[in-house]
TrEMBL record:
Protein name per Swiss-Prot or TrEMBL: Endoplasmic reticulum resident protein 44
The keyword Chaperone is annotated on this UniProt entry: yes
Lineage, uppermost ranks: Eukaryota, Metazoa, Chordata, Craniata, Vertebrata
Biological function: Mediates thiol-dependent retention in the early secretory pathway, forming mixed disulfides with substrate proteins through its conserved CRFS motif. Inhibits the calcium channel activity of ITPR1. May have a role in the control of oxidative protein folding in the endoplasmic reticulum. Required to retain ERO1A and ERO1B in the endoplasmic reticulum.
Gene Ontology annotations of biological process type: protein folding
Cited Pfam families: Thioredoxin, Thioredoxin_6
Entry-linked SUPFAM superfamilies: Thioredoxin-like
GO cellular component, one term: endoplasmic reticulum membrane
Keywords, comma-separated and alphabetical: Chaperone, Disulfide bond, Endoplasmic reticulum, Signal
PANTHER family in the cross-refs: ENDOPLASMIC RETICULUM RESIDENT PROTEIN 44
Domain of life: Eukaryota
Organism field: Ovis ammon polii
């Protein structure tokens, strides 16, 4: 793959096919701006990106600490395709050559970009100085705790690399030497403490010097099957392009969430990758509820948002009927939900001899589509293709 980055100033590093791998793989952090010259939002970002790189270069003068670069996606469409660029400008973060899943979606200002890089450069691991601190971590979070004989070790370097990538999803803690000794009866180890106080801890049994094995295990613990949707991550989740199966529940109603999580894991694990499993705070997402003629008083409510329409699951308690939730998702994939909203029950669902009526109706339009990347911030490629 040919990589060429066009420099804006001396602070925006120009990369070519000869140095791209070396520079990105050796950079602690690289922020890459994927742009098109004709895109007005790209044009507006250029001087901001340039000034932010100058500010950061003063704070992190070492060439390998932070790299600012950009890609002209018209000239290098192969690079744009490789990284699935669907809008301009797109700012993606790389760590030691590995692209992070979360792109930068914050404010486009010098201060915001500089603050973002500073936050990425901060140590994501909290050091424990007393094992008593382990009893008081925030149990609303997913906690990953590493116990190491010494900081200067390959085991810890792998742990630190994983923490740098997944620190947005988990809280990382570490103890060393004498402090960690009571937990190192079989050598260095990593423990996952799930949210809540009832779930048991889990211990990583693989090789701690194997980055892929360690990363995959920790990612599996840090990124839950059922994720919470907020206004902060709504754009990111929407851009994944998968329909939403979403539980609306009151924040304090953890019982319904647990039931939903268990049934998704039991009935729908094979559907991971075809639909996003989410939960949302009824109070914060009153508007989508109103869209399906519900209020927070009706919660918990399960619905599907296909990005065209919203469909409501029956009574929440029916989620416990084996296969019921799975059928709801299958009916989305088969088009049955859409057909029935427009034409009433499918003929196969009516009793013998019962007259089939063509019931015209208008399913509620998608609410969450409105959280997708905005045409007021990006040039969306699908819109350009339709011109």
């Amino acid at each position: 793959v040919t990589w060429v980055f066009t420099p804006v100033t001396a602070e925006i590093i120009s990369l070519d096919t000869e140095n791209i791998d070396d520079i990105l793989n050796n950079a602690d952090v690289a922020l890459v701006n994927f742009y098109a010259d004709w895109c007005r939002f790209s044009q507006m970002l250029h001087p901001i990106f340039e000034e932010a790189s100058n500010v950061i270069k003063e704070e992190y003068p070492n060439a390998n600490q932070v790299v600012f670069a950009r890609v002209d996606c018209d000239q290098h469409s192969d690079i744009a395709q490789r990284y699935r660029i669907s809008k301009y400008p797109t700012l993606k973060l790389f760590r030691n050559g590995m692209m992070m899943k979360r792109e930068y979606r914050g404010q486009r200002s010098v201060k915001a970009l500089a603050d973002y890089i500073r936050q990425q450069k901060s140590d994501p691991i909290q050091e424990l100085h007393d094992l008593a601190e382990i009893t008081t971590p925030d149990r609303s979070k997913r906690n990953i705790i590493g116990y190491f004989e010494q900081k200067d070790s390959e085991n810890y370097r792998v742990f630190e690399r994983v923490a740098n990538i997944l620190h947005d999803d988990c809280a990382f803690l570490a103890a060393f030497g004498v402090v960690s000794k009571p937990e190192r009866y079989s050598g260095d180890n990593i423990v996952y403490k799930p949210p809540g106080h009832s779930a048991p801890d889990m211990v990583y049994l693989g090789s701690m010097t194997n980055f892929d094995g360690t990363y995959n295990w920790i990612q599996d613990k840090c990124v839950p099957l059922v994720r919470e949707i907020t206004f902060e991550n709504g754009e990111e989740l929407t851009e994944e392009g998968l329909p939403f199966l979403i539980l609306f529940h009151m924040k304090e109603d953890t019982e319904s969430l647990e039931i939903f999580q268990n049934e998704v894991a039991r009935q729908l694990i094979s559907e991971k990758g075809t639909i996003n499993f989410l939960h949302a705070d009824c109070d914060k997402f009153r508007h989508p509820l109103l869209h399906i003629q519900k209020t927070p008083a009706d919660c918990p409510v399960i619905a599907i948002d296909s990005f065209r329409h919203m469909y409501v699951f029956g009574d929440f308690r029916d989620v416990l009927i084996p296969g019921k939730l799975k059928q709801f998702v299958f009916d989305l994939h088969s088009g049955k939900l859409h057909r029935e909203f427009h034409h009433g029950p499918d003929p196969t669902d009516t009793a013998p001899g019962e007259e089939v009526q063509d019931v015209a109706s208008s399913p509620p339009e998608s609410s969450f589509q409105k959280l997708a990347p905005s045409e007021y911030r990006y040039t969306l490629l699908r819109d350009r293709d339709e011109l």
